[in-house]
């Protein structure tokens, strides 16, 4: 039964996070991008902080010391603020599916950043090929025109790529800081801090907002879905699966989520994914498999051993 439970929860998480890209596209029709992202984490951050206070003992919901607050600062600036600001601004001019596919490059970039920041742990030749294939996939999806590198569609996809890079760099830096901060606490305070940073950026950009957005059912539905389902509920599923499956297997959700983004985007927004985008996604998946080949081999062997006992 645990086998089917894990599969069900994994697919549920992929559906939540994949459909979130569609909710972003829907909400961007009513809210300015950075403010929209900030509002999402105003709600999600409070909910996650409440969960951390409930689930953790001995006051572990509150960071202590310079190292723990440093982890929160990196998470707030890179994992939440930079990632979502780039993503929401970029997704104004690209499809939900294309954005989800570009974001799926994050695990590949994470490995690249990790190797670059730890020279003694350099990538093998095959690993370098994997990173290169991932970047080729991005180039195929973005389709840059050398004669017009400021084209709206290309710049939008470049911003989404920057979102993936911000998340990857933030993931590496949070692991490099020597702090034993529970992941629930780190996520909660990073969400709150990231929301504050994005509010400041939104104010600096003087983002306008139409009063009608606060009463429009689609706008409120998109905001509620992102805050409650994709963020609060989604991260609770993530924490549960992280303990059950481990980091390698949970990373695979990045490659299932675009499928849900594509289907929901087609059904709800009428978005169509072209063959070029699918081809680019294939390069990114192959790149991930090459970069993570040893971990994937060990993970599959471990899963086979567990399931053979049931």
Automatic annotation (TrEMBL):
<feature type="transmembrane region" description="Helical">
    <location>
        <begin position="218"/>
        <end position="238"/>
    </location>
</feature>
<keyword id="KW-1133">Transmembrane helix</keyword>
<dbReference type="Pfam" id="PF00892">
    <property type="entry name" value="EamA"/>
</dbReference>
<keyword id="KW-0812">Transmembrane</keyword>
<feature type="domain" description="EamA">
    <location>
        <begin position="158"/>
        <end position="291"/>
    </location>
</feature>
<protein>
    <submittedName>
        <fullName>EamA family transporter</fullName>
    </submittedName>
</protein>
<feature type="transmembrane region" description="Helical">
    <location>
        <begin position="125"/>
        <end position="142"/>
    </location>
</feature>
<dbReference type="InterPro" id="IPR000620">
    <property type="entry name" value="EamA_dom"/>
</dbReference>
<feature type="transmembrane region" description="Helical">
    <location>
        <begin position="96"/>
        <end position="118"/>
    </location>
</feature>
<feature type="transmembrane region" description="Helical">
    <location>
        <begin position="35"/>
        <end position="56"/>
    </location>
</feature>
<dbReference type="InterPro" id="IPR050638">
    <property type="entry name" value="AA-Vitamin_Transporters"/>
</dbReference>
<feature type="transmembrane region" description="Helical">
    <location>
        <begin position="186"/>
        <end position="206"/>
    </location>
</feature>
<keyword id="KW-0472">Membrane</keyword>
<dbReference type="InterPro" id="IPR037185">
    <property type="entry name" value="EmrE-like"/>
</dbReference>
<feature type="transmembrane region" description="Helical">
    <location>
        <begin position="154"/>
        <end position="174"/>
    </location>
</feature>
<feature type="transmembrane region" description="Helical">
    <location>
        <begin position="250"/>
        <end position="269"/>
    </location>
</feature>
<feature type="transmembrane region" description="Helical">
    <location>
        <begin position="68"/>
        <end position="90"/>
    </location>
</feature>
<dbReference type="GO" id="GO:0016020">
    <property type="term" value="C:membrane"/>
</dbReference>
<feature type="transmembrane region" description="Helical">
    <location>
        <begin position="275"/>
        <end position="291"/>
    </location>
</feature>
<feature type="domain" description="EamA">
    <location>
        <begin position="9"/>
        <end position="142"/>
    </location>
</feature>
